[in-house]
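**Protein of interest**
===
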Amino acid sequence: MQLRVKANKKEYFDFSNISNDKHFMVQFNKIANQLIKDYQLKLISSINEFIAKQNQTNIKDYDKKYYQQEERSILQNSQYKGNNQEKPFIEKKIEFTRKEVFVLLLMMYSNVLDKDNQNTRGFYQINMELIKQSQSKQSQEKLKCIHSYFINFYNRFFKENDVVSNDSNEVQRQIQNIEKEIQEEQQHHAKKIEQLNQRIQMIRRQFLNNNPKEQSEKQYQDELVTFIRRTEFRNYKEIYNDQQCSLSQFLKNKGRCEDFQNSILVNFADKNVGGLSLDQLNIAQEEVLMLTHPEALISMLFMEPMNDNEAILIKNLIKFNDYDGYGLTFRQKEEDYFKQNSDSSIKQHNEFSQRQQELNNQKDSQNKKIIINHILCMDAIFYQNWQMQFDESFINRELVKSYIAFSLALDHTDSENISTGKWGCGIFNGDIELKFLIQLLAFSKANQDNQYSNDDFKNKKRRYISFSSFHDNEFDSVIQYYQQDLMKQTEQKYSITIINNVIENLKCQFKQQISRGFYK
């Protein structure tokens, strides 16, 4: 039975618990319910279409076609260059405007959505009932992150824009009529749907071009949040066939991965994207990224579990929350640019002065720059037996997984650097030194392939990978050691061979120490 998203039948949804401001909640409830009513059929249809694409047999057909090619040397002996050669991977992409993401999160919060075979297919919780009903401290902090998102998105990007002109209402009416046609034609008329979508975009562009103020106000609503899943068909030997790859330079940071703003943040992901973000208790690195960037949570609705040859990129996410602590000590902290600065020493004596202060606070908030990041999901192997990770097959799996992820990110972004850290360590039992070397080697190879996939690669901005130690002195020492040692050899042609030799030596060293009982 194919996995699909469906809507529970409800006529009214209560969001009153997200804020203590009763006046705010009256308006929020009214608009939120109308949004769900207007958008849910379209959004559910889009999600199910994407799920179906992920399950289509054309993936196997492509795989078969690829491996039956006679001229495999094209991919084995040269770098693929853009669209001039058949790509050794396929991608599935789905996009939503920020406003649509807002509606989907409203639907998840109000338990509108359900999934067929959710438990048997390995998906975790996709609604928020568990954390809404739980009294655990972790659940309360998760809810604070989600409530903060709802309130701040509504106040900053949505509320004022919703008082629209008659022209804007007419535009919305036209769009809704066309979307209704889309729903009716969706099953059998793909070309017609594309034409109708183009008409929607044309109407929007015409209206915004004639209304510069409206264009500015709706900027964040209409921005797209993009979800891309890449499936790679090359194996380890085919990807790493070129040993003449220079080692990329890398950066070191003692703090957290997400301290690098406007970056590609590596999500130390579960194969089920989102992991335990909506569970009552768990808050590890993946949950932290999902809660600080709540727009990413909707990926749990439609992204199937990743295979070993897959990675997922989520583009253009606003950071709505900051945090302190980790796990049991995690505490939600609202982002500075959403805080309204007020001087408590000044007493407001009338409604006018209070309103003026509110306007000043709102203007202050609007002037602060929004932080936008991309999240790169790549799942490491869990090693119940710690020694197993030094077997060649497991090292090769991790090299392929991280290469796919880094290639995906570099191909779909322009200049952002990748920010990572102790990927697959912690509860997954990965060795910090081995995982560091794997990521550095994979990034170096992906970075070279990305540069040579474009004829104008000499003019491309240099891209870096940054390793954050999360204040782990042991990992910080590892990064510093290799920064001093490996960077001396960056000019040599055989840098991949060098780092492979380092991994081999590391394996031998650990095996000797394991035999002496020095390691776990």
About this structure: The CA atoms of residues 248 and 444 lie 5 Å apart. The two ends are 43 Å apart (CA to CA).
